[in-house]
Amino acid sequence: MTGRNNPPSRPHPSAGLALLVALVACGGGGGGSRTTPAPPAPPTPGPGAWTLVFADEFDAPGSPDPGRWTYDLGYVANNEAQYYTSRTENVRVEDGALVIEARREPWAGYEYTSGRVKTQGIVEFLYGRAEVRAKLPTGRGTWPAIWMLGANIDQVGWPACGEIDVMENVGFDPRTVVASVHTAAYNHAQGTQRSATTRLASPAPWEDFHVYAMEWYPDRIDVFVDGRKYFTFRNEGTGSPTWPFDRSHFLILNLAIGGTWGGQQGIDDSPFPHRMLVDYVRVFEARQVLPTTVVHTAN
After folding, report:
1. Closest CA to 150 of 260, 30, 262
2. Is 111 among the residues known to form the active site?
3. What is the reported pLDDT for 4?
4. Which of 49, 54, 57, 114 is nearest to 81 (CA)?
5. Which CATH architecture describes the domain 21-26+49-116+124-289?
6. Which regions of the chain are under pLDDT 50?
7. What is the pLDDT of residue 22?
8. What pLDDT is stored for residue 49 in this prediction?
9. What is the pLDDT of residue 250?
């Protein structure tokens, strides 16, 4: 969706699989360039090989679990039109789903409010499979996203921290979902981002839930929708400018309104409020590939 914390606006250990779950901020190290050979491809886990290590099924009504989620608040980036809040009007668990609701209402000088939740400083991941079952809003001006940013963003900034966009969608092209990665070498500010699109004909993204998933290995990142892979980004072995994905990342779920991509064809005010519904978030590791989980917890 574009690295936050004031990034540029955009127009639109072995060769196995390890997962890092950090229950405190990892504070990842520097982003200096280093050249290493691309790792050999690990075996792709077969059916039943994945082990669940993190999940939120959104079963408890009210605010999201503070042991899993925190918020971005206010204006963040991309010339978006909304003001993010932590109010239950904008972010809540209801009827077994996380609801992120964008509302047309005056708030802190903005015309719209919405929600953006993240696992930053609570749970951060390195490698594994992340999947989110979600139902998207539709309407000109909406911009929902499921994505990840490098946990060292405060140290190295965006795009050096890395960004993995598991799913983006804009309301003026509502059947199309987009997967992307952004790095120091490949990013929208330079027009070099790596991405792919796929269209969901029936059911449409706003008509029913779909499973948006990402598998992250030392040698590649694969992105899927409903089990169908449509994007792969490979580690070139040329160092962190092209592959900052050997460090932990945190997960973000948000619904933006307008902005440099979502607002390219304006905002239709008639369909508000808009809701992004998330049935579950699940993260897995493949123990048969590399039977190691590193857990960091607060003392």
Report:
1. 30
2. no
3. 47
4. 114
5. Sandwich (2.60)
6. 4-35, 291-299
7. 43
8. 81
9. 94
Rg of the chain, C-alpha, whole Å:
18
Q: What percent of the chain has pLDDT over 70?
A: 80
Counting Cα atoms < 13 Å in the Cβ hemisphere of 172 gives 14
Minimal CA–CA distance to 145: which of 255, 53, 221, 65? Answer: 255
Tell whether pTM > 0.90. Answer: no
Other beta carbons within 10 Å of 170: 24
How far is Cα 91 from Cα 71, in angstroms, rounded to an integer?
9
Among the options 168, 207, 215, 285, which is catalytic? 168
| CA dist list (Å): 31 to 106, 150, 162, 286 | 40, 11, 10, 27
Concerning whether 163 is annotated as a catalytic residue, the answer is yes
pLDDT at 43: 62
C-alpha closest to that of 93 among 68, 71, 62, 56: 62
Indicate which residue of 101, 163, 215, 285 is catalytic.
163
